[in-house]
């Protein structure tokens, strides 16, 4: 089992690099990142691991993928290279706003073509 160094790039700064076993799933990475979130990081901390969205090669990663699968999709970089994943935190306003949106009456639309 090979360990993989991963740097997480956020708009407010970088986190890491942190070491993960290559057999770790994306969900395992999210959970560790949530547990080890830096106290002095300028961005708002996530409230749950599900609030952390990871991006690799322009695609959001789902929780079931392993780091080995990501390495293969990146052209199988050397084991000593640091893998960079982009990190996005789901804003709390979006979570709260989605509940309010469901309380509203459905919008009515009309289209007339003559």
TrEMBL record:
Pfam families: Rad60-SLD_2. It comes from the Eukaryota. InterPro entries: Ubiquitin-like_domsf, UBL3-like, UBL3-like_ubiquitin_dom. Residues 5-111 form the UBL3-like ubiquitin domain. This is UBL3-like ubiquitin domain-containing protein. The lineage of its organism: Eukaryota, Viridiplantae, Chlorophyta, core chlorophytes, Trebouxiophyceae.
């Amino acid at each position: 089992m090979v360990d993989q160094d991963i740097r997480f790039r956020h708009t407010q700064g970088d986190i890491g690099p942190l070491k993960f076993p290559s057999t770790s799933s994306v969900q395992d990475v999210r959970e560790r990142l949530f547990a080890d979130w830096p106290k002095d990081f300028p961005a708002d901390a996530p409230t749950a691991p599900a609030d952390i969205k990871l991006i690799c090669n322009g695609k959001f990663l789902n929780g079931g993928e392993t780091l080995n699968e990501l390495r293969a999709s990146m052209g199988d970089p050397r084991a000593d290279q640091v893998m960079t994943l982009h990190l996005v935190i789901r804003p709390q306003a979006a979570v709260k706003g989605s509940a309010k949106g469901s309380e509203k009456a459905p919008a009515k639309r009309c289209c007339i073509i003559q």
